[in-house]
């Protein structure tokens, strides 16, 4: 799959913008703050229904506007698909596919994108929420219907937690809140699906993660991952290691039993203490947790390997072909060896989009199509060269 053309209206710093991209490497060059990452963010949104920079959609709408529009023409072999999403500052977003109204959660069926960004270091060094976010965005690309499951789970979680807070304020304890059972049923049904999907994802990512890490780091440090799950007796959000707590039974059975065991504590604290929203993806190299033990270089290698493994997984599963790879200001963060290795590993994808403040940071293998960004103005060197050639011919 490739993005042939991207159009924006009232998105971030762009009143309007049009960007033509080619198969193979595309380089977007410009000083910081000019709008390079905004273009990358728009493409990523079509694939993941979220931003890698902010947790809500409103900041992506240009100041003074009520809505932003992202429109892209995608090429899948000989097929062309026009996808569009309107991000509303208030109310639900709206989507269109080939001009017809569509549900927004259908967009990831058409757009497959893997983003590498400086924020990726937070996947390995940050809070559990960063790792959950990484996994869930990949889940949506792998199985687009998971966007609805995740959204429904968040809604049920908010309503259940609001009920717990209300009960705490009224002094209700123990089994004195029978209405909680209804929300437990919904939480278990949706949460079990998420937990099982995440577990399968980790297992499927393991082989490409191992290969990608060795290719980037130039060493075999045996990178591993597993989910520390609150339904199995731990609480990763509070630093309790759940790895050794392997309860028997189906995910739904474990979930329901854990909720029952935590009912008194939940009523006392007014929060939901069990579920995929409390889980953590534990990453290890050299049999040690990456967070707290890995060097800066090892941490970067794990982060990059997770993205490459994601790309390889989507590449293997998608009938649309390769996902688009976006490397957003990543090369400035890497040493010379990792720059060269990452460039060689990604150059063979159907389409690669690279952003950089300093053009020299980008390895030569990725220099094919250069676009310059300045204060929201997009200048395509290919079009400029064609113009200059025409003037010379006259």
Automatic annotation (TrEMBL):
Gene3D superfamilies: P-loop containing nucleotide triphosphate hydrolases, RecF/RecN/SMC, N-terminal domain. Its main location: cytoplasm. The keyword Cytoplasm applies. ATP binds at residues 30-37. GO terms for cellular component: cytoplasm. One of its GO terms (biological process) is DNA replication. It comes from the Bacteria. Keywords: ATP-binding, Cytoplasm, DNA damage, DNA repair, DNA replication, DNA-binding, Nucleotide-binding, SOS response. Residues 3-364 form the RecF/RecN/SMC N-terminal domain. It is found in: Cytoplasm. GO terms for molecular function: ATP binding; single-stranded DNA binding. Pfam families: SMC_N. The RecF protein is involved in DNA metabolism; it is required for DNA replication and normal SOS inducibility. RecF binds preferentially to single-stranded, linear DNA. It also seems to bind ATP. Belongs to the RecF family. This is DNA replication and repair protein RecF. It comes from Microbacterium pseudoresistens.
